Amino acid sequence: MNPGIALAATAHHPGFLSPTGVEITFVLVGLATLGAALLTVTTRQLVHAALWLVVALGGLAVEYLLLTAEFIAWVQVLIYVGSVVVLLLFGLMLTRAPIGRSPDADSGNRWVALGVAGAAAVTLVWVVVDAFRATWINLHGAVQGTSRATGTSLFRHWVLPFEALSVLLLAALVGAIVLSRRDDGGRGSE
Amino acid sequence: MHLAYPAVLAALLFCTGIYGVLARRNAILVLMSVELMLNAVNLNLVAFDVWLRDTLHAGQALTLFTITIAAAEIGLGLAIVLLVYRNRGSSDIDRLTALADPAGPGTGGPADPGAGADQDEPGATAGDEKAEATA
């Protein structure tokens, strides 16, 4: 009877000092993601910032996989790593960003920015840890984020926002084309 | 898994994005930092969806919507940055002061209003040329 009670207790209240493999992997990948994000916002080589952004976004995709959200993870890989970073690299090259170190990558108010970010980090981490100190995610049982479940809910409960988003994507596409179109008629600027 | 792990990671990523938005000078690097902040919100949405075991899967649906909106935002933002670079020859957001208030008499030195006026003139003419070209 005693081991049964102990087993039930550990099942309901996992200890702080007995992390599972998923937790260890999550923390390690999280540290790598955070380090890549910090390098993204601090490196002085602009192209390297985009490449570190790839590492950070890929790490986040691994975190989604660890949280059993497989469809979100692959969408993250496809859209962010596949297209957004490529767009950013094209933007860097079309604006003739310097390839080497650029000493003026940071503006003059970086110490104010550091203060604001540090204060926000301390406040947010304190509040979050205080609020969710005794909360555990149950990763066992039915998997929450399979592609089947996501697709079913997306096309059963979220159809109208989904279609509205496709209209928004079309509007963004048209807007980007209109913005970046050169006007050849009349007096050509170049 | 402890819920504090993804929540703390999301908070730290968001604050990294805040630092990047405030401290970077190149507009494209600012867009990268905005992407970091959006991804931190996505991680929170997924973690809380898995924690609550939502039957509507609202967290994952909203994550997909956020990713889509972020893709639209990065496309439009890059188009605007390229347009600004074509008109002004620079994508440094510190130098784009055509719409800024001139520095007050008490705050800035004597060099600041002069520099602001120098920046304003080509910006106004470029804007006029652009308006004529589109018309």
TrEMBL record, chain A:
Q: Where in the cell is it found?
A: Cell membrane
- Where is it chiefly localized? membrane
User: What broad class of enzyme is this?
Assistant: translocase
Q: Where are the transmembrane segments?
A: 24-42, 49-67, 73-99, 111-129, 158-179
One cellular component term from this protein's GO annotations in UniProt: plasma membrane
What EC number(s) would the UniProt record show? Answer: 7.1.1.-
Regarding the membrane, this protein is recorded as: Multi-pass membrane protein
Q: Which reaction does it catalyse?
A: a quinone + NADH + 5 H(+)(in) = a quinol + NAD(+) + 4 H(+)(out)
- GO terms of molecular function: NADH dehydrogenase (ubiquinone) activity; quinone binding
A family per Pfam: Oxidored_q3
Which key words are in the record? Cell membrane, Membrane, NAD, Quinone, Transmembrane, Transmembrane helix
| Coiled coil ranges | none
UniProt key word Membrane? yes
Q: State what this protein does.
A: NDH-1 shuttles electrons from NADH, via FMN and iron-sulfur (Fe-S) centers, to quinones in the respiratory chain. Couples the redox reaction to proton translocation (for every two electrons transferred, four hydrogen ions are translocated across the cytoplasmic membrane), and thus conserves the redox energy in a proton gradient.
Q: Name the protein family.
A: Belongs to the complex I subunit 6 family.
Q: What is this protein called?
A: NADH-quinone oxidoreductase subunit J
UniProtKB/TrEMBL annotation, chain B:
Provide the catalytic activity annotation. Answer: a quinone + NADH + 5 H(+)(in) = a quinol + NAD(+) + 4 H(+)(out)
Pfam families on file: Oxidored_q2 (PF00420)
User: What are this entry's molecular-function GO terms?
Assistant: NADH dehydrogenase (quinone) (non-electrogenic) activity; quinone binding
Q: What is its EC number?
A: 7.1.1.-
* Main localization category: membrane
Biological process according to GO? ATP synthesis coupled electron transport
State whether it acts alone or in a complex, and with which partners, per the record.
NDH-1 is composed of 14 different subunits. Subunits NuoA, H, J, K, L, M, N constitute the membrane sector of the complex.
Give the family from UniProt.
Belongs to the complex I subunit 4L family.
Name of the featured protein: NADH-quinone oxidoreductase subunit K
Give the species. Actinacidiphila rubida
